Amino acid sequence: MTTAAAPKPVDTRGLAGQTVGDTSICAVTQTQLIYRGYEIADLAEHASFEEVAFLLLIGHKPGAAELDAFRKDVSAMRQVPASVRDAVVRIAKETPGAHPMSILRSGVSMLSHHDPECEDNSPAAELRKAKRLLAQIPTLIGICQRTLDGKPPVDPDPTLGHAANLMWCMSGRKPSELEARIMDVSLVLYAEHDFNASTFTCRCIASTESDMHSAVCGGIGALKGPLHGGANEMAMEMLKDIDRDCAGGAMTVDAWMQRAFAEKRKLMGFGHRVYKNGDHRAGILRSWGLKLAEQLGPTAKKWFDMGDQVQAIMLRDKTIHPNVDFPCGMTYFIMGIPVPQYTPIFVAARITGWCAHIMEQHANNRIIRPLAEYKGPALQHWNG
Fold this sequence. Notes:
384 residues, mainly alpha, Citrate Synthase, domain 1, CATH 1.10.230.10, 2 domains, 3 strands, 59% helix, globular
């Protein structure tokens, strides 16, 4: 009689494959990414980021009057207190090697002290706080980048939409219509993604009945890591390495990749914990980025040509698809955005999802407190 093979143990480290709660905000499946009932490709093509922010924070598609009021509310909240602005300038000047995500985390923490509703977790107060954070985070990003560039901060521009204002605050240059549209689409794509590491961090903090600003600071800390939000930075750094090593025909992209495989180098921008057949967002952002690259010419388009080679090799040799961070790196780069600001821009989008989850957690709360399986030494006696 043959004995059936024992089932292969399931690796649940990092809560892989585990369902840990309910949400009405977002659904992530192998075939779809849905924000409150609307699929991501539909939103990226037809909705603005402000409409998506309203959808996530308030819970339904806005009517024209609702959207107009929401835009006016958020636009009016963009300025940050002078003391916060001055502190961010000082930090960026005194510690130019600090990661912009760390500076942004400090900026959000300082904003909490100026928010009169910081400790109020009621639904109405939390929605107002969410709007303020949505409005002020691009301003903080801009203050940091302008200081690193040796230039004074610029005031937010109330005539610009959210995405265009973010780019204006960073560069002091109003983006082209296409650049603004691409940034808007990228913010839509990055706005929400169910219980990812940073969102789950926000929910864990919120579950203790802590405040929204504290939870968002935790989310920023989680997003900073290269295995999460920082992957878009690392993906672009990888492409820059390839460009340098292959310059002048010194090496082919395929040879570079084979060397990377042999050295077991971690290639960022590929693979995903949930998506096994490709990230729905990656193709959308690549298409928009390529449109700009073709407009800008060969110097810009070479990054997408190289990226397509890398993507084809990864699929051929490793059967691994790109995630949204891969085209994001190339797209932001040809728009002139400094690589260290890629992840802060991610925050400017994901703040909507984070705040929606914080509010959902507070509305039906139970402290998140899982158990651990102990693997340490057996019981011992200190004096014997």
